[in-house]
Amino acid sequence: MSEANLGGTIQRRLRFPDYLRRNFTDTQRYLIIWIITGIACGAVAVAFHKSIDLVFHFVRSMAEWIGDGSSGMTYFYLGIAPVLGGLLTGLIVQFLAPTAVGSGIPQTKARYYRDFGVFRLREAVYRFIVGTLSVGFGMSLGREGPTVHICGALASWIGQMFGLAKKRVQAMVPLGMGAGISAAFNAPMAAVFFVFEELLGDFSSKAFFGIFVCVVIATAIQRIAIGEHPAFAIELELITTDWWMLLAVPLGLASALLGRFFVEGLLQTRQFFRERTSVPAWIRPAFGGLGVGIIGVTVAMLADGHLGIFGIGYDDLNTALNGRLVLLSTVTLLLGGKIIATLLAYGSGGSGGLFAPTLFIGGMLGTLLGCAAQPLFHYSNDIIGAMALLGMGSFFAAVIRCPMTSIVIIWEMTGQYALILPLMAGNMLAWLLSGKLQPVPLYDALLLQDKINLKKMPHYKGDQDWRNLPVSTIMSFDPVTVGAKENLDDLLARIGEEGLRHHAYPVLDAAGKVVGVVTHHEMEEKQRAQAARTVGELVEGQHLISLNPETSIRDVAQILVLEDVMQAPVVSSSDPGKLMGIVTLHDIARQQNAIEDAIGR
Length: 601
Known about the structure:
Helix content: 55-70%
Number of domains: 3
Shape: elongated
Radius of gyration: 29 Å
CATH class of the largest domain: Mainly Alpha
Strand content: under 5%
Number of strands: 5
Strand order of the largest sheet: 1-2-3
Distance between the termini: 31 Å
CATH topology of the largest domain: Clc chloride channel
Oligomer: single chain
Number of helices: 23
Structural class: mainly alpha
CATH superfamily of the largest domain: Clc chloride channel
């Protein structure tokens, strides 16, 4: 494209944003942007939902047609579909869209905190395509995580197209995330809670209004396109408080224990496939799909045709929630099969979310306990369905680790408010125990496996709270040091030759212990005046100001200002002579300037 054409394109792209700035206040302008974002994200989320359903039903119809009435052949062809879906996923991820792997929520969090939420539109496009192929062809994953990624990227792109500053673009991501979850689950309240619990980390009132606008609009579009009913059509008898609800306690305990196994299994399976360097990365999801196919076919043949292992599995889960899945052998096969199939599908590099498998596994766990306890409490099969619902919530709380979301999302997806008390009890117990068993939440653990530590990013806790982070998040870990016995003439010559000039240098004695700090200016001045021959003479009697890695950035800034120094070494808390790094007032000012530059208009 020529320079003239490029300029014309940019001018046309900015015309509407400029019109908004000239004719509307900031509040009005952002409201218009939020409305556009809610409409776009709601429409895309519904389209993604429909695309997966369309592909899955097409694959199933083709398997039945090719099988020509034979259930065995139909299952065989259904088992081949995840292999093909995994192969297509691997090829696209390897050569076109590396960010389309996995669930999409870790990628969204990383973009939000590392890159001010700046996405490229192609990320949303490829995630849409890959997610449709992967889940639609039967990989044991869900659509909700990819929907978050798609809508987060779309909202970010809308912010960029309207010429918003970096910080404003970053603020668009939670809007898209909330809109995507609300449209995927038909659960607007749970979407709001999830954004604050999983992405933002606190319930800041500043973000409420924009998220609410987008969530409401996206949910309205979803209900117009798909219907007013909850995600699951449940028809249970009137349930009142009774002794059987005490089963929520052992169910919460079982969810925490199984959740620990599930999360650890995901991480280990993922690591196992990554270490198979002899197998090309693009073919690994096909091996995962092969595992899903074998397990899915086996379960279908042994469990009277239940196909819940393939894809999202909500049909079988809905059967369980209505108390119509009461055979222990069938429930056990579906529970165990879904766990192993999900580990293989996700760990091998498939594209799809973990919400749906988590809800499915939790539902089957609750059903299993409900069936086992039925002879003790003598309740009807409807209570087994209620136990499935409680299991969905408690396992979700144990794995996803968003306790408020886990309560509200089950309530909104099922419409069963009568079960809110045992639901709350089981969910909170599962959440508390899982925090002890697995201190690092699932999505953060996946990012750590990718060597991304959000906790060390100054933006992770917000613009105001970054000063409370430890100074280790911004200090330099590899400062240029000088020896106390080094000759000034030789040292300055070496620094010049090697291009190692800095404002100041920590000084180490013969044992490698830090004994002072010397500036380059001081060394040059003493050299000219021939007032000292070695570095040790310069720092002799110096009052050393040192810091510890865990000292907050706010306290470090105060210490440097009060002591009237520009820099200080950071030493080990257990060994004051061991140098860990160095921090300067410039490091702190640079971070502050980055924050202010990002806020923009």
